[in-house]
Write a structure and sequence with these properties.
Layout lengths: L23 H13 L3 H6 L5 E13 L5 E11 L3 E6 L8 E8 L3 E16 L2 E8 L29 E5 L3 H10 L6 E5 L2 H10 L3 E4 L7 H11 L4 E6 L6 H5 L3 E6 L3 H14 L8 H24 L3 H18 L5 H14 L4 H24 L1
Parallel strand pairs: 7-8, 7-9, 9-10, 10-11
Antiparallel strand pairs: 1-2, 1-4, 2-3, 3-6, 4-5, 5-6
Helix pairs in contact: 8-9, 8-11, 9-10, 10-11
Length: 376
């Protein structure tokens, strides 16, 4: 199947963003409803963690029984390293061979081959189609996010206990967040002024949501809050706005896009109250040494693989290192993560000599840093 063009004239959705005719506003309403009613049991059965990937127009080419490709535009719901979920106006049979075109921030439109594994009727003409990729991808290459992205999909709401403070000078935003947490066991305390926030922080908190406005310097405000509490923070940002630098470099700060869906709110609370809680596996004290040891073990196998000139195993090993270094980037080892990711991108090139050359700086960074942890 040749790669479809994102400007294909044969698209059934020509002149519309997608085959369902959904604009961004309506699509978000539909996806909010799907997120709110998703099955917890289905989430538990998934192999790969899904990341929200709301796109109103993505090209999909499906190979027909006669060998002809049908090219159309579909709306997207979420993305994982193993596949993608899209909304389409037509039924597609499981097993259908297809190609999805995703926009890569550096390489532009990128065709990804896969197969339809499920097709569920949602309402009217709407079908949700699950596509499994033939080869896994790195979601970080296609989703504009950072290491603080929320990836907890299966959330047991009964575990979302603790005192959570929400700061916002906007009464409507405080009410909206209160509605999102109304049925959760979380004890929410909403405050409208910095004075009230300081007072509540001194009384103790397990997590803090900060909804900054234009009247405050966000980064200075975050630093002030951190002088009063060691609780993990969530910075709420409008859709399309970049997160503050401090929020992308701190290990105990996450971001939440506003308006938030019920599922996104539950994921944020799980990240704050469970994953980043003291003593958890994401707690830097417990996690860093373990990751270093795993990186050291993988790094020890890279030289023989590179010498053999086998690009596949090398790329797989580098991909695992990239996954680990993405995590420890949250612990201020950003340079280590960046070098590993750079090597992965270049490892796709077929020149074995180039692979060996690219490997040298990667090993030089990984092995010396990893060795002390391994010795410990």
């Amino acid at each position: 199947m040749p790669p479809p063009s994102s400007n294909s004239g044969g698209s059934r959705a020509s002149g519309r963003a997608n085959s369902l005719g959904l604009d961004d506003r309506i699509l978000n309403q539909v996806l909010n409803h799907l997120d709110a009613t998703q099955s917890a049991e289905a989430a538990k059965r998934r192999t790969f963690t899904r990341i929200p990937y709301r796109r109103s127009s993505v090209v999909l080419a499906v190979k027909g029984a006669g060998g002809m490709d049908t090219v159309t535009k579909v709306a997207c719901r979420n993305l994982s390293s193993g596949g993608i979920s899209v909304l389409h106006s037509a039924f597609l049979h499981a097993g259908s061979v297809c190609v999805v075109v995703l926009e890569h921030p550096k390489h532009g439109n990128t065709p990804i081959k896969g197969r339809v594994v499920r097709c569920q009727h949602r309402s009217g003409l709407m079908h949700e189609i699950g596509i499994r990729f033939d080869e896994q991808i790195s979601t970080l290459d296609f989703v504009e996010t950072d290491a603080s992205v929320l990836t907890l999909e299966t959330v047991r709401t009964e575990k979302l206990t603790g005192t959570v403070i929400h700061f916002s000078a906007d009464a409507a935003k405080r009410q909206s967040l209160r509605e999102l947490t109304r049925e959760l066991p979380t004890q929410l305390k909403s405050v409208a002024t910095t004075e009230d926030l300081d007072q509540q922080l001194k009384l103790g908190a397990d997590a803090v949501f900060i909804h900054p406005d234009t009247s405050i310097n966000t980064e200075s405000f975050i630093k002030h809050v951190q002088t009063l509490t060691r609780a993990p923070l969530c910075i709420i940002i409008p859709r399309g706005q970049a997160a503050p630098d401090l929020a992308t470099n701190e290990s105990r700060i996450i971001t939440l896009v506003w308006p938030a869906t019920p599922h996104a709110m539950r994921s944020a609370l799980a990240e704050l109250l469970i994953a980043l809680a003291p003593g958890s596996t994401k707690d830097p004290v417990n996690q860093t040494a373990e990751i270093f040891n795993r990186i050291a073990a993988i790094a020890a196998t890279l030289s023989p693989v590179a010498e053999a000139g086998s690009a596949g195993p090398l790329a797989k090993a580098l991909s695992e290192i990239s996954r680990l270094t993405t995590i420890i980037a949250r612990h201020d080892l950003v340079d280590l993560s960046a070098r590993a990711r750079s090597a992965i991108i270049e490892s796709a090139k077929p020149d074995a000599t180039l692979l060996r050359d690219l490997l040298k700086p990667l090993l030089a960074v990984l092995i010396p840093i990893s060795a002390p942890a391994a010795a410990a």
